[in-house]
Design brief:
heterodimer, A: 379 residues, mainly alpha, two-stranded antiparallel ribbon, 16 helices, 70% helix, globular, B: 566 residues, alpha+beta, five-stranded antiparallel beta sheet
Chain lengths: 379, 566
């Protein structure tokens, strides 16, 4: 699996299959939605289009987590925070786009600020009327937070479970903070009632399809980028850090730099996923910061299989499809199913579905090789 | 550690006082009933008269309530209070509650309750049914705020003669700042008889304030009064001293008032600190209870149990179920709930260990995920069985109320008991770990599994039992938490992150560290809270811990030696 330059990352068989299925499916859905009349049995509703778009955003988020967990062994239980921050940055742009069409009709202030009797826009809301600025913030805010947090954590060698728990505390603290009205992000109602993006109405089918395609492009791009990175020297060092951190350090690698680098990149990807997610679901609120969301995300990756990238994508889509079906048919059973999934995957399927498929397809390996594999298993 | 021990002894001392106070509570109730009796001591003697004429006098006074003149009504209230009739107290209360009616048809004063769009009437003295009246045919006797205050004062004056000193003190406190001559006469009369120093102190304060409020009083009298009240924490004292400071012509008096005020301020500040400390300790003990089971499973065994919060929740629900089984036993059902909750949570814990965790030893992150799945299942199971709504657990009588130290500082019993209880659980656990065979085996297995097995310890069984112990303690914590918060499916989630923070902050594998961490985080939270608000305080504490772990990744009291290497 050597693919040290971008062209091989794009053209090897796995990448081709993945990108082919991804864009093929999205294209079919887009065409069936836009061209086939609504009466036809083949028509795909715009609800389905947005749902698929949502799944793709989740898949991108799962991919971001797989990058740190699968390849670097950092189990972040706070990745939902980066996702939500990206979402809030996009939400702020969309709020500013409402302009004077809000309930109170104030030219600059969003409805909730008028409601709270605020006189003017807080300083951190300035600039978000520009799409470009908002997009920079989508990447910058989660990136900087991850950088600062990671710099503090990795430098003092906080690892394993401790790191997991403080990432969870991070997202929990942010959730509490965003629930406060005084923070200026709409309190527990969050940001909603969006009207349009870049001048296109969010209610239009064509806008929804465009957002779906944008999500697919982001996911495909992130997939190729991640594959390329994991094939480079840097990526291989990251994996060495995962497998034996002390050994890598003694060999002279500054392991904390590698971890910080990959953690920050992953946070940026998560932020982008959040930014694409918000216009498709039409709301962002502090619930996205809840620790449960972040931990649910971990199970998507675990179900799919770690350190494969496409495994995370498959896991995210399958689990979320299951969630949609379950919560529709028998809502009480969903949490039982999710809980069972956590237990079953960790106990019976440590390598996820991808690992299961591989072990079924490939001939049995030599026993000593299996042992070696087990030693290097990411914790 | 000696400092910690000292603190604990202090707390046990306070707890002892609390227990003494509760045993006085039944007499308190008895005192309430005797309050209405005509033979209460210290009652003005002129009212002693034969029963029949007393009743006639009472009826004459009641008739005055037909008048629209508030002065006439005030007079009537006065005579009723002094009549010494056993119904006097109840009638004045009825007047306050708007249950004393003027029946326009019969032109009489009666007791009445609203019934079927009209009034059900009763005789004010015999309480016999005397028919009913249409809604418009009767109207409640109208009183104004002055009369309301008068009734309350009179009730307090009556209560000054209550046999229970706590009630007497309470009554005297209500009269502090009152300058009504009738009230002052009653206070003076009581002052002469009062034997209890606490009650006497309050009465003295009340009389001294009266001196300061009296424009005719002599300067020396006032100076003496100021000296006497300096340091008293009654709000009325502060008010009167402020007034004297602003109004007095004599420099000596102004100086004295200023000195007294600053003394009061100092004391107030001291007690406010004590109050914060107490709340911090009680929050700390809640944290300790929630975290201590985790200190066993996570700290000693190294198992990340994300379902720990749900084990606490199961304990809380067990309390609820036990109360449903014994609907009349609220006073003692906690004693059943404690072992029941321990057993329920311990059994569930052992099932989790045998069914899931034992396959995942040595893979901490997988354990975290699997137990998280278990927590989801447990939460949802509770939602399905008990409904997603919160259930309320009845707090027993002996846990409600407060131990009042002075007007601005009181200790609520439920918090006091939680502090004591948390410490008892903590030391019991220490004993189990240090003195029992199981404890020895637990420590052996956690230090070196291989050697322990070579010595003949069945490590599998020890694992299950240890996990059961930690889980059972979580269940006991649930019983305690059920007394403080709502019992609902999300109860556990509220505590899981806090518990981990406490254990990690204190240093994994160190029970003393857990104790110190729980109390210091609790107190820190309560110190920040008034400055920044509850949510911000919590965030600040979380951020502090995050930063702290960066500095000292292994907590306050890190483990040393071989065990630390793993």
């Amino acid at each position: 699996m050597r693919h040290s330059d971008l062209t091989t990352a794009l053209t090897d068989r796995t990448a081709k299959t993945f990108l082919g299925i991804l864009f093929g499916a999205v294209l079919i859905v887009a065409l069936l939605n836009l061209l086939v009349p609504a009466e036809s049995g083949l028509h795909v509703s715009s609800y389905t289009v947005s749902l698929l778009g949502k799944y793709l955003c989740y898949a991108l988020l799962a991919l971001a987590l797989d990058l740190v967990w699968g390849y670097c062994g950092i189990l972040s239980l706070g990745h939902g925070a980066f996702f939500a921050l990206g979402g809030y940055a996009m939400g702020m742009y969309l709020m500013r786009q409402i302009g004077d069409r809000g309930v109170y009709g104030h030219p600059t202030l969003p409805d909730f600020m008028v409601f709270l009797n605020w006189e003017e826009l807080p300083w951190y809301w300035h600039g978000f009327d520009s799409f470009g600025f908002a997009m920079i913030m989508v990447a910058l805010v989660p990136g900087v937070l991850a950088f600062v947090f990671g710099w503090l954590a990795f430098r003092s060698r906080v690892t394993g479970v401790y790191l997991s728990i403080i990432t969870q505390a991070l997202t929990y603290a942010l959730m509490l903070a965003f629930f406060r009205n005084e923070l200026g992000f709409g309190g527990n109602n969050g940001l909603t009632d969006f009207k349009d993006i870049l001048g296109f109405s969010l209610r239009e089918d064509s806008t929804r399809v465009a957002l779906l395609i944008a999500s697919a492009v982001a996911l495909g791009g992130a997939f190729v980028l991640s594959r390329w990175i994991t094939g480079t020297r840097l990526g291989r060092t990251v994996m060495a850090v995962r497998d034996a951190e002390s050994r890598a350090r003694f060999l002279g690698y500054r392991t904390e730099h590698y971890k910080l680098w990959i953690f920050t990149l992953s946070a940026v990807l998560a932020g982008i996923a959040g930014a694409l997610y918000v216009p498709q679901v039409g709301i962002i609120n502090p619930g996205e910061f809840s620790p449960l969301n972040s931990i649910e995300l971990v199970v998507w990756v675990a179900v799919g299989g770690r350190a494969t990238l496409y495994g995370a994508v498959i896991g995210a889509i399958l689990v979320n499809y299951g969630k949609t079906v379950f919560t529709g048919v028998m809502p009480e059973a969903w949490l039982f199913a999710l809980g069972g999934l956590f237990v079953a995957v960790t106990v019976f399927l440590p390598q996820g579905l991808v690992g299961l498929a591989q072990s079924l397809l490939k001939p049995k390996r030599q026993p000593d090789a299996t042992d070696k594999e087990a030693d290097h298993e990411p914790a | 550690m000696p400092r910690v021990l000292l603190l604990i002894f202090m707390l046990l001392g306070v707890a002892g006082t609390a227990l003494a106070q509760t045993s006085a509570a039944p007499t308190d109730d008895a005192g309430q009933t005797t309050m209405a009796s005509p033979d209460g001591e210290g009652r003005p003697s002129e009212s002693v008269a034969p029963g029949v004429s007393k009743e006639e006098a009472l009826r004459t006074s009641l008739a005055k309530f037909k008048s629209r003149d508030f002065d006439v009504k005030a007079e009537a209230i006065e005579t009723i209070a002094r009549s010494g009739h056993e119904r006097g107290e109840a009638l004045l209360q009825a007047l306050l509650d708007r249950e004393l009616l003027h029946d326009l048809a019969g032109d009489r004063i009666v007791l009445g309750e609203q019934a079927d769009g009209g009034w059900a009437l009763r005789d004010p003295i015999s309480e016999e049914d005397v028919g009913r009246a249409e809604a418009r045919a009767a109207r409640p006797v109208i009183i104004n705020n002055r009369l309301r205050q008068q009734i309350r004062d009179l009730k307090s004056v009556t209560a000054l003669a209550n046999p229970n000193p706590l009630n007497r003190r309470e009554a005297a406190r209500r009269l502090v700042g009152n300058t009504d001559p009738v009230v002052l006469d009653a206070l003076r009369a009581r002052q002469a008889e009062e034997a209890n120093p606490l009650v006497k102190g309050v009465i003295d304060t009340a009389l001294n304030i009266a001196v300061l409020r009296d424009p005719a009083s002599h300067l020396n009298e006032r100076l003496n009064a100021i000296d006497a009240v300096a340091g008293s924490l009654e709000p009325a004292v502060r008010n009167v001293l402020r007034d004297r400071l602003a109004q007095s012509d004599a420099a000596a008096e102004r100086n004295a008032a200023e000195r007294a005020l600053s003394k009061i301020d100092q004391r107030t500040e001291r007690y406010e600190t004590a109050d914060t400390l107490f709340f911090g300790l009680s929050l700390g003990s809640v944290l300790l209870l929630a975290a201590i089971g985790l200190a066993i499973t996570f700290g000693v065994m190294g198992v990340i149990n994300m379902a720990h919060g749900e084990l606490i929740m199961l304990g809380a629900y067990t309390t609820f179920v036990v109360q449903q089984i014994f609907p009349d036993g609220h006073e003692w059902s906690l004693l059943v709930a404690l072992p029941a909750a321990f057993l329920v949570s311990a059994l569930v814990g052992i099932v989790i260990e045998r069914g899931v965790i034992r396959f995942l030893y040595g893979r901490p992150l997988e354990t975290l995920l699997a137990t998280f799945g278990v927590s989801l299942i447990l939460q949802q199971a509770v939602r399905v069985i008990f409904s997603p709504l919160n259930r309320s657990v009845v707090t027993p009588e002996w846990m409600s109320g407060a131990l009042e130290i002075n007007p601005i500082f009181s200790l609520t019993y439920n918090r006091l008991y939680i502090i004591v209880f948390a410490l008892i659980v903590f030391f019991a656990l220490q004993l189990v770990l240090k003195k029992t065979r199981l404890g020895l085996q637990v420590r052996a297995v956690s230090q070196n599994r291989g050697t322990a097995r070579a010595m003949g310890i069945r490590s599998e069984r020890v694992n299950a039992l240890t996990f059961g112990l930690g889980s059972g303690i979580a269940g006991i914590a649930g019983v305690a938490l059920a007394q403080l918060t709502n019992v609902g499916p999300n109860l556990g989630q509220a505590y899981i992150i806090d518990s981990f923070m406490v254990v990690v902050f204190g240093g994994v594998g160190n029970l003393w560290g857990t104790l110190t961490a729980a109390f210091s985080l609790g107190i820190a939270n309560k110190i920040i809270e008034p400055m920044a608000g509850a949510v911000l305080a919590k965030i600040m504490v979380l951020v502090f811990i995050i930063l702290f772990i960066q500095r000292k990744p292994r907590g306050l009291f890190p483990q040393r030696g071989r065990a630390a290497e793993e």
